[in-house]
Design brief:
Belongs to the ABC transporter superfamily. Keywords: ATP-binding, Nucleotide-binding, Transport. The chain is α/β, with parallel strands linked by helices. It folds into 2 domains: 3-212, Rossmann fold (3-Layer(aba) Sandwich), CATH 3.40.50.300; 216-278, Alpha-Beta Plaits (2-Layer Sandwich), CATH 3.30.70. The chain is 34% helix and 28% strand. It is built from 10 helices and 13 strands. It has helices at 43-50, 90-97, 102-111, 127-139, 157-172, 184-187, 208-214, 226-235, 257-266, 281-295; strands at 3-14, 17-28, 32-36, 58-63, 75-78, 145-149, 176-180, 193-198, 201-207, 217-223, 240-242, 247-250, 271-278. The strands form 3 sheets. A 6-stranded mixed beta sheet has the order 5-6-7-3-8-9, sandwiched between helices. Strand 1 and strand 2 form a beta hairpin. The radius of gyration is 24 Å and the shape is elongated.
Length: 296
């Protein structure tokens, strides 16, 4: 698969503090890559290096095999907070960045749901309105690569949903996204790859499909006797954990489901409810970080 962005062995220090330590990852064309990790691990720094705002101490960033952001046809970005002029209206702001393409501005205003306030001065905007304006600027002129740092900041649930759907639609049409967010539940709904940073290192760079395969996979059972159910299954080499309302059975570290149901039927334990559950992105990230912490 063609890569729009390749980061190779990039390191960055500020004084004696190493922010990025020999990090490498790739962003395939048309993908939505989540750049995640605890606060202060270098997410914004690598985004600024990619955009040429900071220079790296070593390593390289390549866009379509070129050494500059000019190698990508167009790059849209929102880093930290929108760079907007408070004395201009939202429309005037967008006109500046669109090189006065009023048709492009009209389309992005409609897509972002900004019609009701786009002609008011930005100084009177709420945090969410300003955030939408910044995202709209990033998406103007149909960029090939879009880099978004905390795009969901200040957005209400409906706006989050609309932004997610827009990003998914644009990605289907070939736009590539690198998105950083601490709202992992929202990020998980749209990304197909994840890059996890910790202490300036890439500790995980993988597809979401593979990450889910590595995560815990289990059944949640509600039975006529949860206590007896848990004891029987544990005695038969099932990995179980009893909660106040259910019995959780690991499907990764246990015998077959046929054995499970046969055991319960034989002992006349009735299954009232069963759910197939899997660890989410947050659980998977915490597991990786805890493992990394144990290895340091």
């Amino acid at each position: 698969m063609e890569n729009v962005l390749t980061v190779k062995h990039v390191s960055k220090r500020f004084g004696r503090h190493t922010v990025l330590n020999d990090i490498s990852f790739q962003v395939p064309k048309g993908s939505i890559v989540g750049l995640i990790g605890p606060n202060g691990v270098g997410k914004s720094t690598i985004m600024k290096i990619i955009l040429g705002i900071y220079a790296s101490d070593s390593g390289e960033v390549r866009f379509n095999d070129a050494h500059s952001a000019k190698g990508a046809k167009r790059v849209g970005e929102l880093i930290e907070s929108p760079a907007i002029y408070p004395f201009l209206t939202g429309r005037e702001q967008l006109m500046l960045y669109s090189h006065k393409d009023s048709n492009d501005v009209r389309k992005i205003v409609e897509v972002m749901g900004m019609t009701d306030y786009v002609d008011k001065p930005v100084a009177h905007y709420s945090l969410g309105m300003k955030q939408k304006t910044g995202i709209a600027i990033a998406l103007l002129q149909h960029p090939e690569l879009v880099i978004l740092d905390e795009p969901m900041n200040g957005l209400d649930p409906m706006s989050n949903r609309d932004l997610r759907n827009l990003i998914l639609k644009l990605a289907e049409n070939g736009t590539t996204f690198l998105v950083s967010s601490h709202i992992l539940s929202e990020l998980e709904k749209m990304i197909d790859q994840v890059v996890l940073l910790d202490h300036g290192n890439v500790v995980l760079a993988d597809s979401m499909i593979h990450l889910h395969e590595l995560g815990a996979n289990y059944l949640s059972l509600m039975t006529s006797s949860n206590d007896q159910c848990a004891k029987l299954l544990a005695a038969n080499r099932f990995c179980v954990a009893e909660t106040s309302m259910s019995v959780r059975v690991s499907l990764t570290e246990s015998p077959s489901l046929n054995d499970l149901f046969n055991i319960l039927l034989t002992h006349h334990i009735q299954i009232n409810d069963v759910q197939h559950l899997q660890t989410d992105l947050e659980d998977s990230v915490l597991t990786v970080l805890e493992h990394q912490g144990g290895n340091r």
